[in-house]
Amino acid sequence: MTAGLARAYAIAGRPNRARAELRELYQRALHHYVSPYGFAQVYAALGDNSAALQMLDRAAAEHAFELMFLKVDRSFDRLRAAPEFQDLLQKIGFPK
Questions:
Q1: Residue 96 covered by a domain
Q2: Residue 47: alpha-carbon gap to chain centroid
Q3: Closest by alpha carbon to 3, among 22, 20, 17, 28?
Q4: Is the pTM of this model over 0.90?
C-alpha cells in the first residue's frame, strides 16, 4: 500500500511527499519483505528511470511475482523504449 501511495503522490505532482513515502517503504523493508517491483513503480513515477530499471532488475533476480504484469503495467510506459527494459522483458521470458 505504501508503494501505491508514494506512486500516487508522484503522479499528483507531489514528489517530496512521494519521496517521504519511499523512505517509509525502505524503513519497512528493513523488517519485512517489500517487493522491488513496488519501488520500481515509485521511481518510474518520479521520473528516475535509472533507479526504476535497477529495481526491476532486482525484482527479476528475486523472481517477484508482479513481473508477470510487466509487459502491460502502465507504470512503466516511459521505460518501454529503453533497451534495458526490452532486455529485461526478454530475460524474464516475454516474447518480442
A1: no
A2: 11
A3: 22
A4: yes
